[in-house]
Specification:
382 residues, Rossmann fold, alpha/beta, six-stranded mixed β-sheet
């Protein structure tokens, strides 16, 4: 078997003891293996560019069926896709976070609309940005691998059907991982009925696989590791860096944004359901329960740097911290943190000091294995 194929690489990790036995993962690796073989003979470049498509030239062969892998966090979806992508035998391929990709699409649309009509006419691009943008993407990328496929924005929802319809017609092969089944995408979204045809089209073009399993493999990497680090020093900072890497397979996350009641909440670092903030960014600015609830619905784990010891003059910061911990706790969000003191020394005296004792109790419970391996309730209920 090809040593670069996903199934062989998966089994090699099993033999090395880096992965536990998981029949669901094995099935996904086998499906990716079949796609690996099909891609070895696939070349959409001969007479297949978007200009040929627009002028009616037919494709020589149908594109291989892609794959949509969904399931709870930590089931190994991204790991499997990475094994596949790294060894994919195709010339033009790209792995990208879905929201990053859609941000690029919106930027392309904006540039298209700012281009003078005469210039667009010379290039044969007309007035509709979607066909030429899809064509440019298809010429540059034959295999698109999306991590964390999720649709929350109506602007994205309205674009996706037409954009991906063109990409599929041009022979782009799509692999996607998601926490949601296709039928749950953009659930309860504005004008969702306009989005439903895209869901049906995707289900026809992609093999849909639910990656079920009893264990959150990413959180299992933290088994036996402390999640509360004190005092604030280089060792604590290094432990949080290591935790982020262990949970996401990335040393540094990408910046993200969440819309909360018409405002933008900036997430300094995010990756694979993990967000990283400094205490000041969450508790020393004008944020509240709605902001923290939005975070809890988006992320299963929060890494929080630099919890200081708070004196009586920091009662507002202490109050926000109480609300933050309450929301995280109520929604089963995991917390990995660095702090100046032990939990009972964070806010020893001041207004609300008595109520803060509940926060102390919750912070202690959130360090337990029972809490850490419990389900992320916000995601399960959303």
């Amino acid at each position: 078997m090809d040593e670069n194929s996903p199934l062989e690489r998966y089994r090699a990790l099993r033999r090395q003891g880096e992965l536990d036995a998981d029949p669901a993962q094995e099935l996904a690796a086998e499906k990716l293996q079949m796609l690996h073989h099909r891609l070895a003979q696939y070349d959409p470049s001969q007479g297949q560019g978007w200009r040929q498509f627009l002028f009616g030239r037919s494709r020589r062969e149908p594109a291989p069926e892609g794959l949509y892998i969904y399931g709870d966090v930590g089931r190994g979806k991204s790991m499997l896709m990475d094994l596949f992508f790294d060894g994919a035998p195709i010339e033009r391929k790209r792995r990208v976070h879905f929201h990053e990709f859609m941000g690029e699409v919106h930027a392309r649309i904006d540039r298209f609309r700012k281009t003078p009509a005469k210039e667009r006419a010379k290039e044969g691009r007309g007035d509709d940005p979607i066909p030429p943008i899809a064509g440019d993407i298809a010429e540059a990328t034959w295999l698109l691998c999306f991590d964390e496929f999720e649709v929350r924005d109506i602007a994205d929802a309205m674009i996706l059907g037409r954009l991906f319809g063109r990409l599929f017609e041009l022979g782009v092969v799509v692999i996607a991982t998601s926490n949601r089944a296709p039928d749950d995408l953009y659930r309860n979204g504005l004008n969702r009925q306009l989005f439903l045809p895209f869901i049906e089209s995707m289900k026809q073009r992609l093999d849909v696989l639910c990656l079920e399993g009893p264990l959150d493999h990413r959180l299992a990497r933290m088994r036996g590791m402390p999640v509360y680090h004190t005092p604030l020093n280089g060792t604590a900072a290094a432990e949080l860096d290591a935790a982020f890497l262990r949970l996401t397979d990335q040393a540094v996350g990408i910046q993200g944004e969440i819309q909360v009641n018409g405002r933008i909440l900036v997430v300094p670092q995010q990756a694979k359901g993990v967000a990283r903030f400094h205490f000041a960014e969450l508790c020393e600015t004008a944020l509240g329960a709605h902001d923290y609830l939005a975070l809890s619905k988006r992320f299963h784990t929060l890494i929080l740097d630099g919890i200081p010891q708070l004196g009586p003059e920091k009662r507002n910061e202490a109050r926000r911290f109480v609300i933050l911990i309450d929301v995280l706790y109520d929604n089963g969000v995991k917390l990995v943190a660095s702090a100046e003191t032990a939990v009972d020394g964070i806010y020893p005296a001041g207004d609300g000091g008595f109520e803060f004792q509940r926060t102390v109790s919750r912070l202690i419970e959130m360090q337990s294995a029972e809490y850490f391996y419990a389900p992320h309730r916000a995601l399960a209920e959303s």
